[in-house]
Amino acid sequence: MKSSNNDLVSRGFLTEGEDLAFVNLTSSQKLELLKSSIPKERTLGARLAKGVGESAVSALIAALKVEKKLYPKIEICNTLVECGIIAVKPLIQQLGQIGSNQHKVLPKKEFEKDSYPLPRDIVARTLAHIGKDALPDLLKVLEENNLPELSEAIDAIGYICFYNHQPEVFEKLKSCYKSNAGNDLIRWKLVRAMSGFSESKEFLIQQRPICKNPIIEKEIDRSIRLINKRYYSTCVHSISQ
Q1: Is-contact 139 127, C-beta < 8 A?
Q2: Residue 161 class from Cβ within 10 Å (0-12 exposed, 13-18 middle, 19+ buried)?
Q3: Domains and CATH numbers, the chain
Q4: SS3 letters for 124-170?
Q5: Distance of alpha carbon 99 from alpha carbon 78, whole angstroms
Q6: pLDDT in tens, 163-204
Q7: Which residue in 41, 156, 150 sits closest to 87, CA to CA?
Q8: CA separation for the pair 184, 216 (Å, rounded)
């Protein structure tokens, strides 16, 4: 069912190009729009912030913490992605802190698609879209003891590496798995992250018979299946060339 114009406006929708009339605002004026009581103006502020540079990052993150409307939230995240590497460290400090959609316990329902699930944490999702430039700082989180950050960082790392193979990352995931032997949620996420690494197959096969949690067992099976599928597709592609 299509949303009415009033619905779109109330959620902060801004058409493409509608921001062009405001590009000559000063940087401070652009960022001030992020605090507007009008959702559409907050979307405008987030879109205009793309040209502000490094000083926009903290303002955008502050806005993301309190934003409730759909389109300003989308635009804030899009702009943070465009900020790229300068946004990575400030975003990592917010992992697990914004919203309430993160996995707190193991899910009962399996993820049945062959793609990698988009992180539920909005900050992890933003870092995932920044891509491999975010990896060096995300990998540092694996060695720390901040569980909310760790839990969401794994999702971002897994997503990035599933679509941009980084073989050297597997050993770091493996080490983290061993360091969190008593935390089923973290182990489950790490097993999922390993689905993007052919290097992890032997380790996953070893873990399968000693894993006592049926949900993690199913995730191990899924990761092995995805690794096998990717390997088969690569072989077929090579033969056909």
Answers
A1: no
A2: buried
A3: 5-84 (no CATH), 122-240 (1.25.40)
A4: HHHHHHHHHHHHHHHHHHCCCCCHHHHHHHHHHHHHHHHHCCCHHHH
A5: 17
A6: 999 999 999 999 999 999 999 999 999 999 999 999 999 999
A7: 156
A8: 8
